[in-house]
Amino acid sequence: MSPCFFPLLLLLCAPLGGGGADEGPRRGPISVPHPPIADILDVYDPYRLQDSAERLTVHGVNENCARDMDEFVAALQAGAPWAFKMLDSTGRYSQGLFWGNGYWLGSNSLCNEIDTNATMEGAARNEVDYDAGSDFSDNSPMRVAFHILKFKIQLTDRSFYVQTPGLIFLGMCLPRSCGHGDAIKITSTTIEIQDEMWAQNPLPRKILLLDDKYLSGEYSYWKDPRVYIMIAAVGSVALMTIVGTIYELWLISASRSKDNSSCKDSNSDHEMSSIHTEEMEPSKISECNGNHIAYAQGPLCVSDHMLSSRMERNITMASEALSLSGKGAHEGIERLSLPRTTDDDMVLKPQQKTVMTRLLLCFSAVSNAKSICSLSVGDDTIAPIHGLRFFSLLWVILAHTCLVAFQFSDNKTFRARAEQDLLYQTLSSGTYSVDTFFFISGLLVSFLYFRTVSKYDVHQLTYTSGGFKAKGIQFIGMVIYRFLRLTPPYMFVLGLVEVTMKYCHDHGSLEPVATDYINCPKYWWRNVLYINTMFPLEQRCMSWSWYLANDTQFYIVGTIILIIAVNYFWLATGMVVVFMLSAWSTTAVITIYTEHTPTTQDPFAHYDELYDKPWTRIGPYLIGMCLGWVLFKTKCKINFKKWVLTVGWVVSMTILFLVIYSLYFFEFGPAASAVYVSLSHSAWALALAWIVLVCASGNGGYVNEILSWKYIYPVSRITYCSYLLHPVLMRSIACNSDSPSHVGKDLITIAFLGYVLASYGFSFLISLAFEAPVVALLRLAHPMKRTKATT
Fold first, then answer.
1. Where are the beta strands (DSSP E) in 380-475?
2. What CA–CA distance (Å, rounded) separates 272 from 254?
3. Rounded to an integer, what distance in angstroms lies between the CA atom of residue 215 and that of residue 504?
4. Which of the residues 185, 246, 331, 627 has the least number of beta carbons within 10 Å of its own beta carbon?
5. What is the mean pLDDT of the chain?
6. For residue 473, how many C-alpha atoms fall within 13 Å in the half-sphere facing its CB?
7. Is 549 exposed, middle or buried (0-12, 13-18, 19+ CB in 10 A)?
């Protein structure tokens, strides 16, 4: 055999045998072993700090912290159980970095348990000799605290073809003597020592230490004065609710015992319903407008039958001025209000009609719960609005669920994969759900107002002869009523946000990027005045309340236009056109100036400039006002030909599809971006206008049946509180978690369903306590009402 055969054989077999079975194929010869990925990503190892107290001090660590760290390292090397627990509760790289896992948190709960069980203090600690192999206790001789170190790491080796997460959060259980900032100094010391160990073969990395969040755990609800204010408010409302409920039950029992006949038994039950409906049923435009995502007593369309009933005689003229006439209402329209009473309904005797009795009945949980849970509405209300409101809020909750899940996940790159799916565009386009609320709001305020002024003499109701004074009184009254109607539950939830975010910041490993624990105590007054959207996002409290601020500002503008329209219709029409064109052009200019390109990846880009400013979002509100006028003029009686219905549905569905999914199919340039951003919100409202128009006129078919399904009414009535509350629940759950979740479709689905049920469940209680009584109290406080009640 030729001697050349053996070298050739070895050459051919070399790639197969290589360096062993455990090694993969190599791209080329490596003269120096590549550092293990675990060493490259190991930024904190307390074993390296043996006898490093002086070195820590040089790096700026305070002496007590340096001494305690030296004791911790000595105990760790000696095998003390409490030291192993401290190390075990400290986070480190494990896996999933290139899948987006930026949370190396360890266990905050375990660190807190170590701190709780710490027993030895002071001179007793000096008696422990860690070099003598003592039988150590499980309890730590020092108090400890949890730190969250925020840093960035960049892998400089060209063999890594993937990027690391933008930020990494490292949990560290350190002695409590180590204060804010010491975690950065300790970590930089360990990194320095590690780099010295790898001096011959430097680690291919660049580390930037950014921030040290010190979870002192010192914040307590019982030390916060705002908690006691909230407890006092809740306690007062609870006491009134208990007394009012007991009083109503006593009245019912007394009425039943007075007359044993079944007829009078039934009327006794209706007595409270009649009184409560009289007190509870809102009839002001401001309230109806505020309820487009709120308590669904919103658009009250009072029928001729109701106005001729006993309740009519108990309602003040001023209140009636802002209610609806139901005369001639089409059968396709249904009321959003509470069940009505009849002429046979009993009322309290004159001696029972005192302010105190009416005040107590305003808080009755029995009547309030029945009103909220009622499945009946009137015959002259725009019922499809119930469905639009409910499904829009589900869309909002789903979008927020995904945002929170993506933020606190150990597989952040899952979102990039999901964004390639067509159905994901439904989530990324969730911003249009808020345009639905704006559209409904404008629709209701316009529809209610025109029907009111067509039936009543506003000048008589405002005790004026007309002119500027009458219109001014009317405007001020409507704005004040809306403010008082919406603010109590809003401020209660804002208080919850402030105290829960303070607790979260001081105790939670996972924390939302919002700084409500700072902003709410400083800027809460901006929320009260509904002007928070006029300030930068980083100065916002309760960021999702931007919708309420915009809607209130739209309401003020819309009310002025409507009051002018009574006498100067074409002037008001011109104002609507000017506002609409101004909004479109302003949005287009801002889009071009900021070089904004709408994308699925970042639907909230240029948030302060484009997303939440009223001058960029008023379009749907104005379109809703226009539709309200059309429904008023046509009395909701429009006969469409089949081909018109067909074309209308095709155009409407096409617009909705393009608004939601166009970013999946197209990449926009500067001009197209300006057109899309400026017109898409209004286009969405136009498509909804067609749906409401055909449903309100009885041409909606199955769509109308779905949107007007009676079982949607109860949840629709508490949508306002659900909108306010659901982000609080999401944040609280995240803040009380020790570690991130592994996001998937199943997890998001289950989380979404849980948030929906929890949000509506707790919102029912808030509505029962703060919404329903407020409506009745506002009517009771009217001076004419008090006069009638005592006469």
1. none
2. 12
3. 9
4. 331
5. 80
6. 14
7. buried
Give 325's strand partners.
302
State how far Cα 148 lies from the chain centre: 25
Q: For residue 505, how far is the Cα from the chain centroid? A: 18
Contact 111, 83 (CB under 8 A): no
Rounded distance between C-alpha atoms, residue 492 and residue 524, angstroms: 12
SS (H, E, C) 732-772: HHHHCCCCCECCCHHHHHHHHHHHHHHHHHHHHHHHHHHHH
- Confirm if 333 and 707 have CB atoms less than 8 A apart: no
Residue of 548, 521, 522 lying closest to 727 (CA atoms): 548
pLDDT at 120 > cutoff 60: no
DSSP 8-state class, residue 209: E
Nearest CA among 93, 129, 354 for reference residue 205: 93
CA atoms within 13 A on the CB side of 556: 13
Cα dist. 523→217, 480, 491, 727 in Å? 25, 22, 13, 19
What gap in Å lies between CA 752 and CA 402, rounded to an integer?
A: 8
Closest C-alpha among 490, 445, 363 to residue 772:
363
Residue-wise pLDDT for 59-98, tens only, equals 899 999 999 999 999 999 888 899 999 999 999 998 888 8
Contact 597, 677 (CB under 8 A): no
pLDDT score at 523? 95
Nearest CA among 177, 260, 167, 193 for reference residue 59 = 193
Most confident of 95-99, 460-464, 753-757: 753-757
Distance CA 500, CA 330 (A): 48
Residue 163 is classified by DSSP as: P
Phi, psi of 94 (to 5 degrees): -125, -60
Query: What's residue 136's pLDDT?
Result: 62
b/e map 11-35, b = 16+ CB within 10 Å: eeeeeeeeeeeeeeeeeeeeeeeee
* Cα 732 from chain centroid (whole Å): 12
Give Rg (Cα) of the chain.
33
Strand, helix or coil for residue 326: coil
301 forms bridges with which residues in the sheet?
324
| Residue spans of beta strands (DSSP E) within 141-204 | 144-155, 168-175
Adjacent-strand bridge partners of 103: 169
Quick count: other Cβ atoms within 10 Å of Cβ 608? 14
Other C-beta atoms lying within 10 Å of the C-beta of residue 724: 27
The residue written with tokens 């345009």 in the block is 435
CA distance 150 to 170: 6
State the DSSP H helix or E strand holding residue 630, giving kind and residue range, or none if neither: helix 619-634
